[in-house]
Amino acid sequence: MRSPCVAVAVIVLCQLLTSQDDKTVLNEGRVIGSTVNDQGEPIAKARLCTSVVLSNSSSTNCGPESDEHGQFDIRVPLETNRIYGQKPEGGYWHDANVHDINGPEAGIRIKLSRENPVAHVIVKLGKIPAHLSFNISDRNTGKAVELATVRWIVIDDMLTSPSETSKKEISVPPDKDLLIIVQAPGYKRWFYTDPSSPSEPTLRLHSGEERTLDAELDAN
After folding, report:
1. Residues 153 and 207 in one domain
2. Are residues 53 and 102 in the same domain?
C-alpha cells in the first residue's frame, strides 16, 4: 500500500506541473495562416519571422516554416505583434520598405491576448521574382569560366543577395534597379551595363521576366 506521504507528494507534483503548463499556455498564442506571393499562389517552405515591436525596442525570432502547401500554425509569445515571411532561395526576400516604414521588424501587424490568443493571417512574400541566366566566358579565349560567382545589389535600398553564388541561374527582385557583379579568380570583376546605353550600370526586370546575360571576363 502506498504511504500517505508518497500520495501527497505525487498530488503536489502534479499540481506544480499543471500550474506550469497553464502558465505557459496563458503566455502563448498561435498564428495560423498561409504564405503566398502577390498573385495568391502558395509558397512552400517559407521561413516565418515574428517580432515584438515596442516604442523603444524590438526583437525578432525567425525559424518556423510553412509546410509544402504554404500553410502554417505556430506558437508565439502573446506579446508578438508582427509577422513576415521570406524565402531567399526561392527569390522572395523580406523588404521592410514594402511592409512598413518603421523598420525591418515591421511586417504584418497582429494582436494577441489571453482572451483572443489566435490570429489568422495571409503572409504575402512579394512579387514573383525575375530570373537571370549567365553565359560566363574568357573574353580572349571564348572558353567558359567555371569558377565564376555572381552577386546582385539593389541600388535604391541596398538590399543585397544573401551571398555570392556559383549558380548560373538565379532569382532576383523584380522592378528594382540592380547592380550585377560577376567575378572569378584570375579575372577582373565584370559589371553589367546596358548594351544600348553603356553609361547605365543597372538592370531592371519585371515580375516573372527571364533574361540571359553574356559576361565576358578580362584576365588580370
Report:
1. yes
2. yes
Q: What is the model's pTM? A: 0.71
Indicate the residue among 124, 158, 186 that finishes a domain: 124
Q: Which residue type is seen at 208?
A: G
CATH number at residue 166: 2.60.40.1120
Residue appearing with cell numbers 508582427: 82
pLDDT in tens, 89-129: 888 987 644 434 344 446 899 999 999 999 999 999 999 99
Task: Render pLDDT for 124-155 as a digit per residue (tens, 0 to 9).
Answer: 999 999 999 999 999 999 999 989 999 988 87
What domain range is 39 assigned to? 28-124
Per-residue pLDDT for 167 more than 50?
Answer: yes
